[in-house]
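Request:
You are asked to prepare a plain-text protein record giving the amino acid sequence and the backbone structure tokens, at your earliest convenience.
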Amino acid sequence: MNDRASTSTETRAAAHAAAAVVDVAVVGLGYIGLPTASMFAASGLHVLGMDISQRVVDAVNAGLTPIEEEGLPAVVSECVGNGRLRAATILSPATAFVIAVPTPADHETHAPDVRYVEAAGRSIAPVLAKGNLVVLESTSPVGTTQMLARLLAGLRPDLRFPLDGETNPDVHLAYCPERIIPGRMLQDLVENDRIIGGMSPRCTERATALYRNFVQGQCLASDDRTAELCKLTENAYRDVNIAFANELSMICGDIGLDAWKVISLANHHPRVNILNPGPGVGGHCIAVDPWFIVAGAPERARIIRTAREVNDAKPGYVLEQVAHAVAAASVPNPRIACLGLTYKPDVDDFRESPSLQIARSLAARYPGRVTCVDPFHEALQHAGEPTDGIVFGDLDKVLAESDVVLMLVGHSHFRKTARPTGKSVIDTIGYWRQEA
């Protein structure tokens, strides 16, 4: 950090000193940040939500939610209405800062990308003040909280940070990973236990006091590096278990057995609990986070790497099944229906969705012959995701006109739909297994 840049940051910090201080500033108003900001506001704190998207900021300030989530619209509307929650594209001073930005992995190398965390740190630095708390929630490689502390220390040499044995820092830092899933975010935020990993015992105490404003579950004290690995471990564990089910389903398919029947019978063993297979693994956590462990320990993380490879290969297996069905069809140029494209049922989240990946591949392979049905398809376009030739249609019409039906996501929208007859059906989730 050169002297000129440091002076510039300190000058901007001084300019903010007289501004009104909110209790909490949440950086990133996505699937994690907005519900978290809303819970802080609902607990009685004054909260600023910062996002680089003007569309998101405008929506929140109008009391609207740019994401679909049970109960969230009512909370946001109430908190904006009573003045406890507001949004902006730039930060202002706060007592505590919570970072909830994406931490993707490179699609080719799988290397973790923490540039958004770094950018969040740079946005916080000018408004930091003595006594502040900075919490990182974003799922991150081990050592990211300390990296953030060093970044802030370089930008704000006038403040002391919990680094290199500093026992009396001006700014406290902690890592507190989220444990929520779409569809029950607000409930999970309140009820789930939270790991609070401070860079010092005092940092942990400060962060625990912050989250106690709304968390009813346990706040489990830890250090930052342990907390970072705990979050990665939770998702890697789930990924490994899903990979076992997906691998077993492919083995069963190859030898002509019903994977769900095998799993159901095997699960009668008192110490066996095999998960249900699917078309792959999606979402912002399980499909990404295990690679952070692999990147940090490439020689040791053999099971974790293999599980990721198995789950990443499952969409290709589904595409092979479709190719066989198309080749065996009794009509020329058979039409294909894809039911469900989100990464899990009844949410509007398409991130890392294997079903979306499958639909894109089919649309490219069979142009003009693939139609999809998803009750949340408008969210795909709002998110700016390329549709790559994907065409959406009405459920009944699509089923009537299709020759090959591919069930990918078990939305409740499909609940009353019986297993199609007179067509080739590829049920990747066992949705119609009771009717088969």
Summary: The longest strand covers residues 22-27. The two ends are 65 Å apart (CA to CA). The chain has two domains: 3-217, 234-427.
